[in-house]
Amino acid sequence: MMKRLYDRVMELAGHPQALWWLALVSFIESSVFPIPPDVMMIPMIIARPTRAWLIALVALVASVAGGLLGYAIGALAFETIGQPILSSLGKGDAMAEFNTRFNDFGFWAVLVAGVTPFPYKVITIMSGWTAMPLGTFIATSILARALRFFVVAGLLRVFGAPIREFIERRLGLVFTLFIVVLIGGFALVKYL
């Protein structure tokens, strides 16, 4: 089923209305959909590199708007909608423990989920459930998603198709290492 869904999303990247489809995929990926918008962005940017920034901007705006839907699911409908979504992603058991610590690290949680392969939808729902301040959630979502989508767009615009394999296989790891180094740097400065 996931393979068919992935293939369908790839087909939409070549659709005449691909930007609208990208907006839809970016929006629903932030709260319920399992396929990330990068799957559409990559072939769209390779096909039309001059539109790289527009494609990244559409993904950013729609993703943050979808993140607000995820936040609302967590805040208003966690028991009926949010919990089953998180349980289906295998995150059900850790929810209670996560809730107690989440807001202490809310900025970092949203930033990490926004740029790494960790499912962003989990953090959007948890942000609403734990009542993270909405301003913090929005600002961090914009920062994280802009970093992710504009780095992908920039790499593809500069290097074209040859960079595709690196983005698909290793960019998540690079972002994860970047976050680890960033947090480590802050921790080092704090204790020196």
TrEMBL record:
Which residues are in the VTT domain? 36-155
Keyword Membrane included in the entry's annotation: yes
Keyword entries, A-Z: Membrane, Transmembrane, Transmembrane helix
Q: Which InterPro entries match?
A: DedA_domain, VTT_dom
Instruction: Name a Pfam family for this protein.
Output: VTT_dom
Q: Where is the signal peptide?
A: none
**What residue ranges are annotated as transmembrane?**
53-78, 105-131, 137-159, 171-189
Could you confirm whether the keyword Phosphoprotein appears in this record? no
Quick one: a GO cellular component term?
plasma membrane
Protein's UniProt name: Cytochrome B
Organism expressing this protein natively: Pseudooceanicola lipolyticus
Q: What is the lineage of its organism?
A: Bacteria, Pseudomonadati, Pseudomonadota, Alphaproteobacteria, Rhodobacterales
